[in-house]
Each structure stands twice: as C-alpha cells, then as structure tokens.
Design a protein that fits this description.
This protein is of the alpha/beta class and 383 residues long. It is built from 13 helices and 13 strands. Helix 1 packs across helix 3, helix 5 packs across helix 6 and helix 9 packs parallel to helix 11.
Length: 383
C-alpha cells in the first residue's frame, strides 16, 4: 500500500533549473542516434516543510534532440520556465500528487512535467521522512535488472560487450536493432552464449508494417520480447504483428499515458508494457499504468533513459512494485557513467539485482561539488 502523507504538505519557495553535461562511459547508439554526452535538465525544488527548509530533486529525461520523442532538453527548459513553473506557483502546489492537475492545461510536455513532479514529491517525502519506495507501494528491496547494449560496429564487438556484462552478473541482455542489424546479432549471441540468459531486442520504432517477415525471423531465438517495432501511432498494425509472430510484442514509445495503455491492451496491440516515468508524465502516472496492467494480467517492466543517479533512484522505487516481473533497464551507474552525480550510485549485486534506496524521498544525496563541476547553467525562479 502507498503511504499517507501529512495534509499540510510543503510550500514551494523557488525552483532551480540546472543544466549539466555528463559524459557517458561509452557511446550509446540506437536506431535514431548516438550519444557520448548527456545534456541533462535537473529541477531542484526549494521548499519549506513543517520542520523548516527542505529541497527535492527531479530529472528530465529528454534528449538533446527531439529524436526519441518530440521533447528535447532546450525545449523542456523553455516550457518549464515560461509555462509550467508559473502555473505551479499560481496553483500553490504543496503535494507531488497535485502537480499533474496544476500543469494539465499545458498540452503534452510530459518529460518536463515529470521532472517537476519528481522534485516536488522528493521534497514532500523528505519533509515527511518517507521513501519513494514506501510511498509508491514497493514490495521488494531489490529489483532484477538487465543491461541495454546499443548498436555496435561489428558482431565481434557485440559479443565481447555482452560477454563482459554477463560476467558482471546481468542475467538479461537487451540489444538495439534496426533493419539490417537484427537477425544476425541475435544469432551471434545465441550461438556464443546459448539459451541460458534472457535476450530481448528494442527497435525504437525502426520498422514498418511491411517488415513482418524479418521480425518473424527473430522467433527462432526465444526472445523475451520485441520492443516497439513500429512508429508509436500504429496501434492497429501492432495487433496484426502480435497475431503473426510468436515473440511477445512490447510497446514503449506508444505508451504515453494510462489512456493509451488501456487502449493498447484492449485492442490486443501489446503483450507486455514498458513503463518509463518521464515518457508518461511522472512516477505517479507510471504507478497508475502499472496498476491497470496488473488488473489486466499484462506484465510490465521498467525502461531506462540514460538517467543519472537522481532519476535512477526514483525509477528503482517504481520498479519495486509487484507488477514489474521482467528485469528492467536500470543498470548499475558504472554501466553509463565514469562518475555519477549522487554520493551513493547504484551498484549491481551478485545476484543481478540493484538495491532500492530506502532513505527519505528518492533516497540518495547529490554530490554537489561534482555536480557544480559539470554544470553548464543555473537559473533560480522564485515563487
């Protein structure tokens, strides 16, 4: 069950918008681009709680360019500054649960809204000394995680990278695919490592309904799922794909909110749902989708958006809910960063899990000295 928070809530005094540039440990390539540095927008809520000053952190998962979705970092900062924060302040929001309604008249911009909600909820929960995990209804203290491997130059590179991660203890490997880089990568991994590990693929909407044959060719590899084969609007075409292949079809980019998740399940357009809080408008929206999927008997798993330790901590709390039955893309911090921006980065346990933070709020503290060293801009917006 979720926690009950004090009715008094918090008073938001100001919100800091901070941009950082954090180098990735290795470049990450998908069907729509390659990243070597993340340009991240962080949201810091400065508030007053029942016992005095309190702060909360949120992370916007948008990329530098509008390639995964229509949102991008610069645009998120603009809409947050010019449209979202004025409405947040005007509404007198004192609870994380009230953020979505206060910002509802602004259409879309779910990633920007999610970052604000995370920051406000973090501050509120810190003031109440309640963890994200407890508040959301977590039932475990560790969550199984997999690793996501981008598109690499050669099959040999892919095999070597997968081998390293399997030896580290990851029990599930996800590889990015695109037309021409799909069947052979799967064949190489199965030929080298056998069937004793979970393998899934992520197309990031790189295929069309004319590509049923190459997608059906993946059936021989016993995949856990194919993630987002078609562009996000093509729900009905996914119904045809689900019927045509044996591998479970999972929707990611298509699931932009609870209503779409309900429609996709009702249509039979998906067998599994990927939940990314930033994509659906926040962790509370992610919990609502989780709850509906549990009621509908649809497995869910937690996606990743190259988050820093701030977003990763909140994601671990959500992924600890009982409906998350497949390993998530919440790898240890050193999978992505030479150095994270929190003082206790996520680490991989020997059993292929990552521990859920238990401290108040998101449960981790920001390494301010290091954060300042990677900061490119800071703007304080007072209420």
């Amino acid at each position: 069950m979720t926690s009950t928070l004090p009715a008094t809530g918090i008073t938001i005094d100001a919100v800091e918008l901070r941009r950082i540039e954090l180098p990735l440990a290795t470049p990450f390539q998908t069907s729509f681009g390659t990243w070597s540095v993340r340009d991240v927008l962080l949201v810091r809520a400065l508030a007053t709680g029942p016992d005095g000053p309190i702060e909360g952190w949120g992370e916007c998962v948008a990329g530098t360019q509008p390639l995964y979705s229509s949102e991008y970092t610069e645009g998120c900062e603009d809409v947050t500054r010019d449209h979202l924060l004025p409405r947040l302040f005007a509404a007198g929001v004192g609870h994380g649960a009230d953020v979505a309604d206060a910002l509802a008249e602004v259409q879309g911009h779910r990633m920007a809204k999610a970052a604000i909600e995370m920051a406000v909820l973090d501050a509120e929960l810190r003031a109440a000394e309640v963890s994200f995990a407890t508040h959301l209804g977590a039932t475990v203290d560790r969550v199984p995680v997999g690793v996501s491997i981008g598109i690499l130059p050669t099959l040999a590179d892919l095999v070597a990278t997968a081998d390293r991660h399997l030896q580290e203890g990851y029990a599930r490997i996800k590889i990015k695919i695109k037309p021409g880089w799909d069947v052979e990568p799967c064949r190489a991994l199965r030929a080298t490592f056998g069937d004793e590990f979970g393998l899934q693929v992520d197309a990031n909407a790189a295929y069309s309904p004319d590509d049923i044959a190459p997608l059906a060719a993946l059936d021989e590899f016993g995949l856990l799922l194919i993630e987002q084969p078609y562009p996000e609007e093509l729900l009905v075409d996914n119904v045809d794909l689900v019927a045509a292949i044996d591998t479970p079809v999972c929707l990611d980019e298509s699931i932009v909110g609870e209503a779409v998740a309900r429609d996709a399940i009702r249509l039979g357009a998906t067998s599994i749902v990927n939940i990314k809080p930033g994509r659906v408008g926040g962790h509370l929206a992610g919990k609502a989708i989780h709850d509906h999927c549990v009621d509908a008997g649809i497995p869910v798993w937690h996606g990743g958006m190259l988050e820093t330790g701030i977003g990763r901590a909140a994601n671990l709390a959500l992924a600890a809910l009982p409906g998350f039955t497949l390993p998530g893309d919440i790898s240890a911090a050193d999978r992505y960063w030479h150095r994270d921006i929190v003082t206790r980065p996520a680490v991989l346990e020997s059993d292929g899990t990552v521990r859920v933070p238990t401290g108040p709020g998101i449960g981790v503290d920001v390494d301010l000295d290091f954060l300042n060293s990677v900061t490119t801009s800071v703007a304080l917006h007072e209420n």
